[in-house]
Automatic annotation (TrEMBL):
Keywords: Membrane, Transmembrane, Transmembrane helix. It comes from the Bacteria. The lineage of its organism: Bacteria, Candidatus Woeseibacteriota. It holds the Pfam family HTH_25. InterPro entries: Bact_Cytoskel_RodZ (IPR050400), Ig-like_fold (IPR013783), Lambda_DNA-bd_dom_sf (IPR010982). GO terms for molecular function: DNA binding. The chain crosses the membrane at residues 99-118. The keyword Membrane applies. It comes from Candidatus Woesebacteria bacterium GW2011_GWC2_31_9. The keyword Membrane applies. This is Putative transcription regulation protein.
Length: 207
């Protein structure tokens, strides 16, 4: 008369399932499957757990469930086992509200740190400075020359030591007084951290 272990093993071999494949299908560790096939009850958990294993294996291997359960009851020794009653079955990942909260907090912290890092880098770097007027070697026909350009909003601009107002978008426009001896215009942009960017434009004065 066949044991429940023999019945399950024959069904597994008939389906050509390896122990690894059966483990993946049922989420029952292959060591437990081997013990059931060998009817080695002393190394298995309590009967309710083993019964659950057998039912799972029977359904997966297309074995008659009632017959497998009946043979198990016949084969299982009538004694209490002192083995860890918790089966080592692969746990299924579930997304919980707590995990959502923790992930949200983590993303928020990363965003704040990224923003602070960007602002610190911006604070410590030299300011940007673009000059659109005058162009290089521009001829100037009067004692005043228009200057125009763009920088950051929190930067101070001077041209030949004369201050120029910067608007809320970082644009600046103004007129600088020059003399016949003036050969160039020195644009100096100074950030809040004291970093400086300097650009010179050569001009040709003719007045």
């Amino acid at each position: 008369m066949k044991t429940v272990g023999q019945i399950l093993k024959e069904a597994r071999l008939k389906k050509k399932f390896s122990l690894l494949k059966l483990e993946n299908l049922t989420k029952i560790k292959r060591e437990f499957i081997v013990l059931i096939e060998k009817n080695d009850w002393d190394k298995l958990p309590d009967f309710p757990i083993v019964s659950g294993f057998v039912k799972n294996l029977a359904v997966t291997l297309d074995v008659n469930l009632q017959n497998a359960n009946a043979v198990l009851r016949r084969d299982y020794p009538p004694k209490k086992l002192y083995i860890n009653p918790k089966p080592d079955i692969g746990s299924k990942f579930t997304w919980s509200p707590k995990l959502t909260f923790l992930v949200g907090i983590g993303v928020l912290i990363l965003m704040v740190l990224g923003y602070l890092g960007f602002e610190y880098s911006k604070f410590k770097s030299s300011p940007t400075l673009e000059i659109t007027t005058p162009i290089e070697n521009q001829i100037v026909l009067s004692s005043k020359v228009q200057v125009k350009g763009k920088t950051a909003t929190d930067v101070k601009i001077t041209v030949n030591n004369q201050p120029i107002i910067v608007d809320q978008d970082g644009n600046f426009v103004g007129e600088i007084e020059i003399m016949k001896e003036t050969k160039d215009l020195k644009f100096i942009a100074t950030s809040r951290s004291g970093k400086v960017t300097q650009i010179s434009r050569n001009i040709k004065v003719d007045f």
